[in-house]
Write a structure and sequence with these properties.
Blueprint lengths: L8 E6 L5 H10 L3 E7 L14 E2 L2 H5 L5 E4 L6 H10 L3 E5 L6 H13 L4 E4 L6 H11 L6 E9 L11 H17 L3 E9 L9 E8 L4 E7 L6 E8 L2 E6 L4 E7 L7 H4 L6 E6 L7 H14 L8 H20 L3 E2 L8 E2 L1
Parallel strand pairs: 1-2, 1-4, 2-3, 4-5, 5-6, 7-10
Antiparallel strand pairs: 7-11, 8-9, 8-15, 9-10, 11-12, 12-13, 13-14, 15-16
Helix pairs in contact: 3-4, 4-9, 5-6, 6-9
């Protein structure tokens, strides 16, 4: 069904766990959206249903008559739930990663595209104020030519994760945001992973690669560190931007312009320290901004969501990281839509 002019979009939510509880809150806070149905076969552990009945499955959710839905179930169930929503003609936001495998992700992409539905992936970091401002300044050419993007995402193990490793859970954040701020897909990737927590999935990854536009990238991701870090560093010809998405701060370190009299330093043909600026920026909640973007995409007002196609490409890079670590090869990524191959 479709909302008529002046009426709120009827929204459903499936999955009331660690992330679903936040979606429930923000859906209720988003103007023009009415949360009318929730579902989770495991019940409502965080008591976010309010006066709504907790339905048992996606079929019951669809029966409520929805314009849009949010999928926050474990990754292994994404495909089945998403395909049911597509079949019912429901515009859908799927928590990242889009699916547990790229084959499943491709089926989801086709299902929504063939029906002309809006499908989006919840790569929430794109909507972080620091990264939004970083992307705007890079697009304006403030850094000049971009040389390198380095990300660090590490912290304690999140008990919410059970069905994927750190690459598909946390690493996909960095893959997506890197490609987005650079406006370029990945060309190659090489990675090393470790298994230290006794689980079947990897819990640490170090990856390095190159984007199609020549920018070199590096990612440090783990959930075995007592120190929590969420940092993106973009270095270019005029200096470096540092985006801290935990605090939503963006800082610029300019190349120095003051000549040095220290011969051993002056002989180095590089840059020196210059001014440092921490920008004062508005800091709306990223999840709220993400939901507003999805609402507007459903209404046809604008379309700056993370598309299913982008989510699938991110998943393919994540799988290439895992392949690289198991084969000891540099994986060559094909053009978007093509499967990666070893090099």
């Amino acid at each position: 069904m479709a909302a008529t002019a002046g009426t709120a979009l009827r929204a459903g939510l499936i999955g009331l766990g660690a992330m679903g509880r936040h979606h429930a809150r923000v859906l209720r806070e988003t103007p023009g959206v009415d949360l009318v149905a929730v579902a989770d076969p495991g019940g409502d552990p965080h008591r976010v249903a309010g006066g709504l009945e907790v339905l048992q499955d996606v079929e019951s959710l669809v029966a409520a008559g929805l314009d849009m839905a949010v999928v926050a179930v474990p990754t292994v169930y994404h495909e089945g739930v998403a395909l049911a929503l597509a079949e019912a003609g429901v515009h859908t936001l799927i928590e990242k990663p889009v699916a547990d495998t790229s084959e499943a992700g491709a089926r989801i992409v086709e299902a929504f595209a063939s029906r002309g539905l809006v499908g989006a992936v919840g790569h929430i970091e794109r909507f972080n104020p620091a990264l939004q401002e970083l992307r705007r300044r890079l697009a304006a050419g403030e850094l000049g030519e971009i040389y390198q993007i380095v990300t660090r995402r590490q912290g304690p193990f999140p008990a919410r994760i059970a069905d994927v490793g750190v690459v598909k859970d946390l690493g996909t954040h960095d893959i997506d945001l890197t490609s987005w701020v650079a406006q370029s897909p990945y060309e190659t990737i090489s990675a090393q992973v470790t298994y230290r927590s006794g689980r079947q999935h990897e819990d640490m990854v170090l990856a390095t690669g190159r984007l199609a536009n020549g920018i070199v990238v590096n990612h440090t991701v783990n959930w075995l560190s007592p120190m929590k870090e969420r940092v993106t560093v973009v270095t270019g010809e005029r200096g470096a931007f540092v985006a801290d998405t935990a605090s939503a701060d963006l800082t610029f370190h300019a190349n120095g312009t003051v000549a040095t009299q220290w011969d051993s330093i002056a002989a180095f043909r590089g840059v020196s320290e210059g001014d440092v600026i921490r920008y004062a920026i508005a800091k709306p909640e990223p999840l709220r901004v993400e939901h507003e973007a999805f609402r507007d995409a459903v209404l046809g007002v604008r379309h700056d969501v993370v598309t299913l196609e982008e989510g699938l490409q991110t998943l393919r890079v994540a799988e290439a990281m895992i392949t690289s670590s198991s084969t000891g090869t540099v994986v060559q990524l094909g053009a978007p839509g093509q499967a990666p191959g070893g090099a």
